[in-house]
Design goal:
This is Phage portal protein. The protein has 509 residues and is an alpha+beta fold. 40% of the residues lie in helices and 19% in strands.
Amino acid sequence: MASQMKARVIKAENVSFTTKQIYDDPFTYDGEIIPPPYNLVELKLIGEYSTILQQCVEAYRVNILGFGMVPNYRFDYNAKDTPDERKQKADAEWTRLEEFYRYLNYDEEAETILGYALEDREKTGNGYVEILRDGLKRPAGMEYVDAQYMRVCKRTVDEEVEYTITENGQPKKIKRWRKFRKFVQMINGKKVYFKEYGDPRPMNLTNGKFDENTPVHLLASEIIHFKIGSGTYGIPRWIGHIVHQYGARKAEELNYLYFKQGRHTPAAITISNGMLTEESYTELQEYMNDIQGVENSHKFLILEAQGITQEGIKPGDESTTPVKVEIKSLAEILQQDALFLEYDTKSRDKMRSAFRLPPIYTGESKDYNKATADTARKITEEQVFEPERQAITGKLNTLFLPDLEIYHVEAALKGPNFGDSIETAKALAPIISAGGAAPNDLRDLLGEMLGKDLEALPDEYNVPFPVVLNNLQQQSNPFMTFAKSKDISNSELINIMKDLRDVIEEMKS
């Protein structure tokens, strides 16, 4: 009788980590609505599965918007040739701009609403805010719009729009032709249309049609679209590293199962001259299924095998072969855990490089000292955060200020202060001693050190300290006071000094 060999593979029935969410796009792209190049829902949710993406996005939001928004003058306010009338207009506009941003949203600060849109922009490439206007057609409110539910439509026909520019410091009205876009939002099967900010045409929010007879309660509001790139939709800056994010996630899941099923050692069970009984096979399968959890640790496995019955030479003679069962470990052929750790480290490095962030901004600063940390922060501030602030405030100022009739001030996002008060004082000491700095030149620096705003001193007090000290010394010298009080010539003054010298020499002798 020819011997036969039979193999069975026994493995645990693991729980799947595949998401159960539906990624079907509810929009119908009939020619007007433009489909996005990537699944926006998936792009936004991947931050919940990545171990590094959310930290990078948070670093952008905090460092770009976290220091607050303040007005700035568009001209040199303290210049001598600045007329008082312009200063008064600028001061009034300063107050209006502060109040505008303060009350853009009654529940959150304007920076917080912009922060939500910035997070969407960094995750999906697109961020949206809705702008509401008051009865005078001025922007008066801002609301956050979730990017995963928004779609961009094709450009509309050209529309003549009036703009306000400044020429020789004076506002001037001009007209230009421009194409606007429409936006559409769908939640729970309901569509709502929006128009691009600055589009003067009344739009019906239910169907996206421009209609002068649209009721007030059905007028569409406006959208400001923050995107990465110049395309119809923005593209996330990290999109080239998305495969690594999925790979890192799978590595995390594999490590999780390794620790969850740590009692199990991969092994091969070999049986010579016999076979497992059906009861042993069932018990082994149950053993593998129950292997998860610490409560199942330190259990014994008993295998029962039966030998193969063989017929003897004589009729009726039968014999059973001796059974040999061996368990051989296969753990040595598995990949080491360090390989997965290296993969995860490389994945994090690649994601940070996409955002151009050093590790200190994602909480990995064990290899930094003060010098290297300051250098990393300054370079990132110059190359990443400050240009992003300029781009955001530049867009807002371009859109808002003409509608608010503000021409002398603008909004600016503040950044961190890298100055060291001790080092700054050391650098300014020789300049102050040489009379190269007036008190008003140092008031802003002093205000930052004290944490308060200091007003400029009057002109009579805005005098360099060495000049003041020299005047005080001359006023305290009685000889100089006598010389200034008498109408004497230089030659007479010299003769008086010579006589005084002779008197001093006689007193010494």
